[in-house]
Amino acid sequence: MVMGTEELNEEEANVEGSAPLFSLRDAQVVRGGKTILDVPSFDLAEGEHVALLGPNGAGKSTFIQLLTREVFPLWREEPPVRFRGSARPELSDIKRSLGIVSATMHDQVRVHLPVIDIVCGGMFGTLGLPRHVEMTPEVHRRGMDALERLGIAEIADRDVMTLSTGQVRRALVARELMSDPSVLIFDEPCTGLDPEGMYHVRDTMRMLASEGRSVVLVTHYPEDIIPDIKRVLLIKEATIFADGPKDELLTSETMTELFGVPLAVDESHGWYSLRGRY
Length: 278
Ligand SMILES: Nc1ncnc2c1ncn2[C@@H]1O[C@H](COP(=O)(O)OP(=O)(O)OP(=O)(O)O)[C@@H](O)[C@H]1O
Description:
It comes from Enorma phocaeensis. Residues 22-262 form the ABC transporter domain. Pfam families: ABC_tran. This is ATP-binding cassette domain-containing protein. The chain has ten helices and eleven strands. The chain is of the alpha/beta class. It has a single domain (5-276), classed as P-loop containing nucleotide triphosphate hydrolases (Rossmann fold, 3-Layer(aba) Sandwich), CATH 3.40.50. It has a six-stranded mixed sheet with strand order 5-6-7-3-8-9, with helices on both faces. A hairpin with a 2-residue loop joins strand 8 and strand 9 (239-245). The longest helix has 16 residues, at 195-210. The N and C termini lie far apart (67 Å). The structure holds adenosine-5'-triphosphate. The site of adenosine-5'-triphosphate (ATP) has 11 residues, from helix 2.
């Protein structure tokens, strides 16, 4: 059999299952004639965690959409995005492996449905159960297990529209757990939450990270970066500003440079915080 360069490279990349979870090379996204993201090189290993940090409009969401294949990079002979070594993974494989929690999804929760239905919909990629699908005892049990893991089993039968923002956010995490994903993407998961909501969402990220799942976090706030996340990817003006160990990059100097205003970083027991220097 004669193989193209792409197939040969995929074989190489998959030797002994050693391919990174995600691999980006010369990945460029152009919109309206403007480069909105340019990633020379980025690899994320299976089980590795990373936090993406950067100013508004820097390109963080675009970066995530490259991983989830919601946006496509400019064509290159060498494919710019690979998932587990594959340049053309099945979309269903990606969907099964990735769980995504974002404020955007939160905004879509505008239906009067019991929480358990919202959670179980995660098995089908729908918000509630699809019309033709009946709630079987097995699906119900899995939904309840997911809610229990999030510590919110008692709200299973509540109308989702009556929940607090923090409870909805946790219910959406439970929904993502229905497919037992190996990667969890949290896109600004604490936006709009009070300190209690933030506490629970960050605690949930810790639980999932400690289970060996990769956590990819997009945030504006170092406070969200749980101690389990050791690597940060700083994005500024549509490209990678820095990529490396958290303890080297989460400094007052680097944050000041990244955001363009005087900032100070404090650290305590592996947790970071950011404040303005006036
Ligand atoms: N379809 C499009 N056409 C033109 N520009 C776009 C398009 N989509 C995104 N952009 C621009 O690309 C840039 C990167 O957007 P992106 O949403 O990735 O940034 P972000 O870092 O996630 O921002 P935020 O922190 O505000 O969520 C922004 O300047 C945005 O306006």
